[in-house]
Amino acid sequence: MNEPVSVPSELRVLERRLHLEKTKADHMDLFGEEPPAELLTPYRLGAESLSRSALLQKKYTDRARNISRCWNRTQLFLPELLLPGAPQRVLEMSTAHGAMLEILRHYGHDVTGNDYANMMKSRGGRDSSYFRKVNDEGFARFRDDYGNRLDPEADDAPDWPYRHITNAINLPMEIFDAGVTPYPLVDKSFDVLICFQAIEHYCRPSGWAAVLDEFCRITRKTIVVVPNPLTEGLQADPDYSAEYRQVMLDLRRFDRNGFRCTSVHMHWSQPSGFKLTAV
What we know:
This protein is α/β, with parallel strands linked by helices. It is 30% helix and 17% strand.
């Protein structure tokens, strides 16, 4: 029986430093301005909600950390929403803990989140939403990654991991599977749409064009899309990697549906933050 390999503490320190360097846009003090203090208090959660939080990554149940990270993202990608002006209708796809929308609501905007059951983990095959096609009728999951039952015939919406947190902060939500189009939203119903590190959860990169077309349909002014960087496992998949890199180029050259790519940001050491603006 093989013994577990011990990782030297010095290597762990170096790995941690490298991670902090790659992700410093999310945690460094950008402009010397603190996020709103009233948003830095802990979530008010009851016993049942605390038990749900125990299933999540601990770092994402810390409200102050979530707010601080999203404060940086707002300053970098949507600084115009921190200035005085007419309130905007904002939709965040896969909002998770909702910290970005908490900040924008604090600045007077009308915010709505979207979420759905997690379907990323695969059990012995590619039954992961990472690899499905958009509108993939052959993709069948009966339980999500947290064991919640998925029943497309049920009258009530499926549960999602951060429900207890979005309920605690009284965040309006639209619950639907973003890998299935068209979305149950009317044309041009939001001014701004943001999608941070989530589009890869909807379908494989070859389907992102259809997802982006849907983003354009329901949005009037601005779309911000930040895909997650490729993991080592996905980099080793030549088909997935090729699709991903092609979509990154397509996003940089995006010019359709009345939207054009107007800026590209480095995020997690890759050019993977794209702002699309109505023209």
